[in-house]
Amino acid sequence: MSNLPPLRGMQAFRYAARELSFKAAAESLNISQAAVSTHIRGMENFLGLKLFVRLTREVKLTPEGRALAGYVETGFQELEKGIALLPSTSKVRG
Description:
By secondary structure, the protein is mostly helical. It has helices at residues 7-19, 22-29, 33-47, 63-85, 89-93, and strands at 52-54, 59-61. It is 68% helix and 6% strand. A two-stranded antiparallel sheet has the order 1-2. Helix 1 crosses helix 2 and helix 2 crosses helix 3. The termini are far apart.
């Protein structure tokens, strides 16, 4: 069993934390707002804590969410840098 939550949940968290918006995260990921909410809820269940406070028309990061956001962002940036170094990246995607 992995100590990491599902990648899709971390990706949804990354965008939602950055914009403080599930709607903006959904648009960035090209999925529904409900899917973003489901991914984040799954991540919260996996971790056993809340990452966002859900208000009527906005979301705010909890202290735990705020602490995690920087690590998740850095992790994705490092992955993107590593993938960009691969010589065949642009050829395969094309």
